[in-house]
Amino acid sequence: MSATASRPFLGDPASFRDATADESSLRRFLHGLPGVDQVGAEARAADLATRSIKTTSKAWAIDLAIRMVDLTTLEGADTPGKVRSLCAKAMRPDPGDPSVPPVAAVCVYPDLVGVAVEALRGSTVRVASVATAFPAGRAALETKLGDVRDAVAAGAHEIDMVIDRGAFLSGRYGKVYEEIVATRAACGSAHLKVILETGELVTLDNARRASHLALLAGADFIKTSTGKVSPAATPPVALVMLQAVRDFAAATGELRGVKLAGGIRSSKDAVRYLVMVSEVAGQRWLDPDRFRFGASSLLNDLLQQRHKLATGAYDGPDYVTVD
Amino acid sequence: MATTTAFEYAPAPEARDSARLRSHYGIFVDGAFRDGAGDAVQTIDPSNEQALAEVAQAGAADVDAAVAAARRAHDSVWGAMPGRERAKYLFRIARAIQERARELAVLESLDNGKPIRESRDVDIPLAAAHFFYYAGWADKLEHAGLGAAPRSLGVAGQIIPWNFPLLMAAWKIAPALAAGNTVVLKPAETTPLTALTLASIIAECELPPGVVNVLAGGPEVGQALVEHAGIAKIAFTGSTEVGKLIQRTLAGSETRLSLELGGKAANIVFEDAPLDQAVEGIVNGIFFNQGHVCCAGSRLLVQESVADDVIAALKSRVETLRLGDPLDKNTDIGAINSAAQLARVRELSDVGDAEGAERWSPACALPERGFWFPPTIFTGVSSAHRIAREEIFGPVLSVLTFRTPAEAVEKANTTPFGLSAGIWTEKGSRILWMARQLRAGVVWANTFNRFDPASPFGGYKESGFGREGGRHGLEAYLGR
Amino acid sequence: MAAERLRVRKTYKLAIGGAFPRSESGRSYPVSDPAGVLLAHAAQASRKDARDAVVAARKAFPGWWGATALNRGQVIYRIAEMLDGRREQLAAEVSAAEGCAPGSALGQVDESIDRIVWYAGWADKFAQVAGSANPVAGPYFNFSVPEPTGVVAILAPQQSSLLGFVSVLAPVLCTGNTAVIVASEARPLPAASLAEVLATSDLPGGVANVLTGFTAELAPWLASHRDVNALDLTGADRAARTALARSAADTVKRVFVPRDEDWSRDPGLERLSAFVETKTVWHPVGV
Prior knowledge:
heterotrimer, A: alpha/beta, eight-stranded parallel barrel, 14 helices, 8 strands, globular, disordered N terminus, C: five-stranded parallel beta sheet, 10 strands
């Protein structure tokens, strides 16, 4: 981003301060955001996907993508053993190649945070926990906050909360806002990622409004999806969310992050998203502190592509670890 | 442009070999390639000024021969052929272009200087699509609403510009052949290669000799074609200046004429526009194909209340454009097509400076050899400035502001041109009101520079007359 | 025994911008029937009258084009109504102008009325026939509509003083153009009377401006006028057409040259199509 992009489209920074004064201010602010033309946004996303990333830049991007992975398991069938195995992979994705960097974080349910914290002790890998009655978020606020406190107490560094999509879709922005603020408070020093579940918000206009709502409420990251709803992360949604953090930074000077979750399985997709990050938000977002992939199978594909680049031979699934 | 960043894109060049470049290209007359009466010339790669190939040039005798061949083919074969048979030939051509898409794309980028991304994703697929579209009309002409028994005109002389060499050839040839005419096509002097390759494709598709003839050459070949008594129809795409000359030449004659000429389109951004998409539309509007587009959105009219924000975002976006090797798949801005065109772009830009407009370009290293001009934005432009009135035909945007819809319309329409216009607003009724007020043949609302064979294209006022594309495009090639 | 009542003669004038001026030049010229009997002195329009007529036509254009097609159709139909009420007068003028039998002249007036009615009905249908929704390969709604070319300068036919005049004027007005029309030089009187019919037909002033005078004198000014969008050469001398068309090329005017002047023929869509532009509008389809 150049210095010329002082404050695209969002007017006076004061409008940000005033946006949260009350429910009607919030509504005015969110509905005053420029609309998103779906076809234009999709065309731009598709256009960015035609970038051809080769050789050295591809290798660089793959290693960066690995460092941005929130290696995730969010199954009812999760066990301590499964989580420990995942943590091992997170710290040392390719046991045969120490040059492969560790991932950003491991993402688990709150009751397994302790296991993960123990397994990752001494590493750079963070522990992220979904909370707030993930994935539906249909519980009393106190229950959701209890969920958060449990995870934080167990040592989670990052909390992935879900917003109340029902409240958002029925226009009760204040309720959504208050819940995020309360969760933010419950997080203490833990970072807060706010899951918008854009697949349920449906329109890109909603994705933009929800992004700004979450950013105003104090989200460190805005995150696309739980991974339990289809569609999850899509290029147009990623585009709109990256524009939101770009615009928020331009207006406030604060750099917030974006996490894409769900459906990103191939290195090709990951590299395309990095191109989008680079060209839409800017180079400052090419950092695991500001951009993440929530994924499980993606990591193995990144490793296979890394191997292909290093050796020139196509890799096979038998040569990566199962987690 | 590609500033020093962590995420550098390694070069990703398309293989030049794909173009199957030949050392010599002949003119195509009566089904065969041969040398022309003129002296052969070298065609060059505008991105590095290297010679690409030697191209035979037609002379007056070749025009005679081509028109005679086309007339024979029309009278003896093509004009009388059942439409469904003509249709199958055109479908063949469409498929053959698709089969050789990569070759044609690389060849186009070499000869024209445009980014491979555009020749690959726009020019070549659309060229094939035009043949595919008009193929289907060949046996349905009586249903086109152009009379119960429409008939072909005869030999169509077609003169096309250098900005979309193959696509313009397709725009011209496909409807002409569908309607039963035969064709003598003159590609632009600086970009003959894809049209000549299309001629070889047409030969491979076994069209009868003489149905399509391609004469490379300069303005004198075009003039000979226009003045030729055996021509029933002239279709010209190019500058308004030359278009007027042709119209003058044909005044009083029986020869039918359609003209697709210059433009100075207003791209109008209201405060309630989807601004991120509007910025994309502005960029696409003026920097697509280096601004070598007759319908380019070369005048940005932005509502004063959002002007600062839009201009800031626009500049920020332009800084991400990548200028360089046309064959690199990541190149957004290629080379200016010729030294002459570069001189004109420079001259008019200098006029912009002299008139007091403020020039801005991103920090952007230009290759040392070849014809290059950085994407350029002039702010503080007024309607009276030459850069707001004259077609620059290059990557140069003039930014003006407005306060009310009526003012936007007035500024947009105050030009002798009337080819295209853009409207950006999320208010539906305003879109339709604006679309009606704007005196332009193509109005893009919340999008820009979209093309489709089913969509009629052409101008109002000095941007020409006649339409290309769609059912309307048949009208230029049919008599009642 | 009362003396035979003296008839009140009409002064034949120009029609510009809803008014009926004499030529600003003050000139007139004698108009005779084919046998050489003087009929009247018609106004001889000057280049300045032509200029004023173009200004009036341009000024009237947004309103006439902005009217609904239904409204234009009704106004044109009203012309037919008004003309029908004056059919005997016009028949007498046509008969005098063209030297034809009264019955034949009346037939021409009736045919003129019917032609106007025919075009009146086209006003709100032509766009449906000439327009289209275009199935483009992408998420866009795309439609094409015919729009008027703008100000059309018409050189009316020299022979057919009323039917020819009506046949060239009505299609131009039907699609929303405004017109400057030069009447038959030798037979201008029916056209001058028709201008009075137009003025009483709810046709806004300036939509149809009727000039009488010398075609060869006026035509070059109209052909070269930069605010004229199209030129109908029907009434131009064949030898003059090339020069006029060449002059029109300076601003890329649409130039119409008729195939024939058989006004009894079904006119078809040729003249309606000749003075329209096709506008194509794109819009994305999304949520």
